[in-house]
TrEMBL record:
Family matches, as PROSITE patterns: HTH_MERR_2
InterPro entries: Cbl-bd_cap (IPR003759), Cobalamin-bd_sf (IPR036724), DNA-bd_dom_put_sf (IPR009061), MerR-type_HTH_dom (IPR000551), MerR_fam (IPR047057), Meth_synthase_dom (IPR036594)
Lineage: Bacteria, Pseudomonadati, Bacteroidota, Chitinophagia, Chitinophagales
Protein name: MerR family transcriptional regulator
Keywords in alphabetical order: DNA-binding, Repressor, Transcription, Transcription regulation
């Protein structure tokens, strides 16, 4: 069982802590347990209940009506509304399935989103918001690494299937080498970049996660025009700006493209460096290549 604070519940559900306290007092809804210091503590089942309540509340149901529902009725109503507004709660479905290690439910929700929205919109509207919520789990020490690995592996395999289904590039003079730096093992954004580049007809050489400079030297000896890396965290001794500058120096005849939140720390504007430090800048770049 994981223990969530009321602030965690706010961040994960979108329902303000102040509102939760009011619902608790007025409707006897979401009654928490109490920790050693008498602060509110919630568990996995509480979180799943609140995710369903949040979905219904944000889709027009009055909280007075929701509060009267038994657990089975609440779940049934949420599922019924989900069929009418299938995309609104898919992030929460993925989150619930991750908490319970429910690979079937996780895969079904992801596959449904892919079919209905297409790969690009599924990633933007469902997977990325889900990953942001998963990040909140990490920040609050509420998720085990195995949970993230469980879910990420399913997403990874689905993206690889979509990538393999795209036709091979022919005639493009550009060839992108994709990788993450040493210590960076978050691979899903890089796989999405792979998908977008291949869809645009570019040649892609996918090196994968945690690639050191010596390995890059070996791989980039092949005809490569762009080195594109993605970085969410930094576990290297080098600072992000130093790392980017070194890459630009070592591969001075090639273009270096740096993406991910950590690249906001890069201020140097070198001739062969492109910095994409926001999701929108990455999308703009990928849609124009």
């Amino acid at each position: 069982m994981h223990a969530f604070t009321i602030k965690d519940m706010e961040n994960l559900s979108g329902i303000k802590a102040h509102t939760l306290r009011i619902w608790e007092q007025r409707y006897r809804l979401m009654i928490p347990k109490r920790g050693d210091s008498n602060h509110r503590v919630y568990d996995n089942e509480d979180l799943k209940q609140l995710l369903r309540i949040s979905f219904l509340y944000h889709n027009g149901f009055k909280i007075s009506h929701i509060a009267r529902l038994q657990q089975d009725a609440l779940k049934a109503l949420a599922l019924n509304q989900l069929q009418r507004k299938p995309f609104g709660s898919l992030q929460n479905q993925l989150l619930e399935a991750m908490i319970d290690f429910d690979d079937l439910s996780f895969s079904q929700a992801l596959n449904y989103a892919m079919r209905q929205l297409g790969v690009e919109e599924c990633m933007l509207q469902v997977v990325y918001p889900y990953l942001e919520k998963t990040g909140l789990f990490w920040l609050t020490n509420s998720a085990m690494p195995v949970q993230e690995h469980f879910a990420s592996n399913i997403i990874r395999h689905r993206l690889l299937t979509e990538i393999d289904a795209l036709p091979r590039a022919t005639g493009s003079p550009q060839r992108y080498l994709l990788f993450t730096p040493p210590g960076e093992h978050h691979e899903i954004p890089l796989l999405f970049i792979y998908y977008m580049l291949k869809k645009a007809g570019k040649n892609v050489l996918y090196a994968g996660a945690g690639i050191d400079t010596d390995t890059l030297q070996l791989i980039a000896g092949r005809p490569v025009t762009h080195l594109f890396y993605y970085q969410i965290t930094n576990f290297m001794k080098q600072q992000p700006e130093e790392y980017a500058s070194r890459l630009c120096q070592d591969f001075s005849t090639q273009q270096v493209v740096a993406g991910g939140p950590v690249t906001r720390q890069i201020t140097n504007r070198l001739p062969n460096l492109t910095v994409l430090n926001s999701l929108q800048s990455q999308l703009d770049y990928l849609r124009k290549v």
